[in-house]
Specification:
It is a single chain. The chain is of the alpha/beta class. It is built from nine helices and twelve strands. It has a single domain, classed as TIM Barrel.
Length: 282
């Protein structure tokens, strides 16, 4: 069977084990499927069995959560070797990671921890990204984070930091519009002002997801990027405003990682994104 290894445009969803059989049986109209490679870095088993079947019907995007590009101890060689093996065997259309760190001094955290936007962080990330790209023999995409704090010693804006990272490493960007809304809301900033300064020329994938709102003291709230619900109206609105300014169509992914719903719910969210794409480029 022919391997599908490119994504031109359109909308995809995250591939979850609860949907393996249904996707193979129904083959819904999707442009691609996205996986977390850490779930497939194994020697065998059902995950690889289904991935091998499904990748002949859909292009695959790999969205890593464990590379820890921002770790001061560098990228874990064993993790990178396993990712490289999976990439060679699967031929994904895109490989992406987060602008974050999750391990250091032998400790591993089940979270994507933020970095200060300083020259020191920039040099560290450049070194780690070069190592990953040299090993994979391809450019990767880096995703803007959802954040809950800011650093007093920031030297660059997030947008300028990402632009410089792309210019100096050749990496591209995965723009998560939900993350933009979550971060700017938590920091009492304007998401449209943020996007007005974003380096769109490097964006090669878009993420849309749901989030939760939790109460704090004094009637304040915090938004948590948990990928566990439908996309809210504010994020849809940002998305619809963003795309008319794009010169080319960009693949869009619907993320739902926590307690994934029935497949039809994800397909309905994907259909909404398709309609916005169609209205933007007709």
């Amino acid at each position: 069977m022919k391997q599908l290894s490119s994504i031109h445009t359109g909308c995809g969803i995250g591939l979850k084990p609860c949907h393996y059989e249904e996707i193979l049986q129904r083959k819904p109209e999707l442009s691609f499927l996205e996986i977390h490679p850490e779930n497939y870095m194994v020697e065998g088993g059902l995950q690889l069995y289904y991935l091998e079947k499904i990748r002949h019907h859909y292009p695959i995007s790999m969205h890593g959560v464990g590379m820890s590009l921002g770790s001061a101890q560098g990228v874990d060689d064993q993790h990178l070797d396993k990712l490289c093996h999976l990439v060679k065997n699967t031929s994904p259309a895109l490989v992406s990671e987060h602008l974050s760190w999750s391990h250091g001094q032998g400790a591993y955290f089940n979270d994507l921890l933020p970095l200060p936007y300083t020259e020191e962080s920039l040099q560290l990330l450049k070194s780690n990204i070069h190592k990953v790209q040299d090993k994979l023999q391809r450019n990767i995409l880096v995703e803007n984070p959802s954040t809950y704090i800011t650093f007093a010693n920031d030297e660059l804006s997030e947008q300028a930091f990402l632009r410089t990272l792309c210019e100096q490493t050749g990496c591209k960007l995965l723009l998560d519009i939900n993350n933009v809304f979550v971060s700017t809301s938590n920091h009492q900033q304007d998401p449209r002002a943020y996007l007005a300064q974003y380096p769109f020329e490097y964006v090669e994938e878009i993420h849309l997801a749901g989030h939760s709102v939790y109460p704090l003291v004094d009637t304040k709230t915090i938004r948590i990027d948990d990928h566990g619900s439908e996309i809210c109206d504010d994020v849809w609105q940002l998305f619809s405003e963003f795309f008319p300014n794009c010169k080319t169509a960009i693949p869009v992914l619907i993320e739902w990682d926590t307690n994934p719903p029935e497949l039809d719910v994800l397909l309905q969210q994907a259909e909404t994104a398709k309609k916005i794409l169609h209205n933007s480029f007709r």
